[in-house]
Amino acid sequence: MLRPVLQFPDPRLREKAQPVAKDEVTPELRQLAADMAETMYDEPGIGLAATQVGVAKRLIVMDLDWSDDGERNPRMLLNPEIVRREGRATSEMEGCLSVPDFKSDVERDARVLVRARSLDWEELEFDATELEAFCFQHEIDHLDGMLFIDRVSKLKRDLYVRRRKKQLRREQEEREAAGHPGG
Ligand code: K1U
Ligand code: ZN
Fold first, then answer.
1. Is the pTM of this model over 0.85?
2. Counting beta carbons within 10 angstroms of the beta carbon of residue 69, is it exposed (0 to 12), middle (13 to 18) or buried (19 or more)?
3. 44 C-beta closer than 6 A to ligand 1
């Protein structure tokens, strides 16, 4: 089932997600992970955090190299954490499914060692560089209530926030003009 992706400035994007305990890996949580993968492919994206679908649990899905006609192997990871970081690099023209109509270069760690659990509670480790490292950092930021616009200059962020608020006001006016004041 596709889940709606929360959009900035929804306050739920700012919540800190809680760790998942072993006995919380229920059929419902597995269904949430499957729904998140389906939603990520549908958007489309290469990652998605549970925070973005309004669930404050430390769960992410990622698939860096899927294609429409190829095999899909989404990683579904619980409690991911960065245990080592090395160097700095620019993530070029990064985007976010929760921050519409904005892309920017972002300064991030160049290499990260990530520890996480699978849904079967195996301990996993990923030594990630380049896009994989940037995606891990982006998704773990979501679990901490942080967005990539928090990592760009204040000037760029302020300009985006102003443009986004204007866009939301315009959409609201259009709904009202059409006789649908809600939402
Ligand atoms: O968490 C998200 O909002 C998903 C985001 C992840 C991400 C992208 C780039 C760098 C770091 C993290 C996205 O997937 S944005 C869309 C995107 O990058 C993409 C979409 C389709 C094909 C390839 C990339
Ligand atoms: Zn994002």
1. yes
2. exposed
3. yes
Closest residue CA from atom 7 of ligand 1? 135
Nearest CA to ligand 1 atom 11: 135
Question: Is 139 a residue of the active site?
Answer: yes
Q: What are the pLDDT digits (tens) for 70-126? A: 889 999 999 999 999 999 999 999 999 999 999 999 999 999 999 999 999 999 999
Q: Report which DSSP code applies to 10.
A: -
Q: Is 96 in the pocket of ligand 1 (CB under 6 A)?
A: yes
Q: In angstroms, rounded to a whole number, what is the distance separating the alpha carbons of residues 42 and 21?
A: 29
How far apart CA 119 and CA 131 sit, in angstroms, is 23
φ/ψ (deg, to 5) at 43: -60, -50
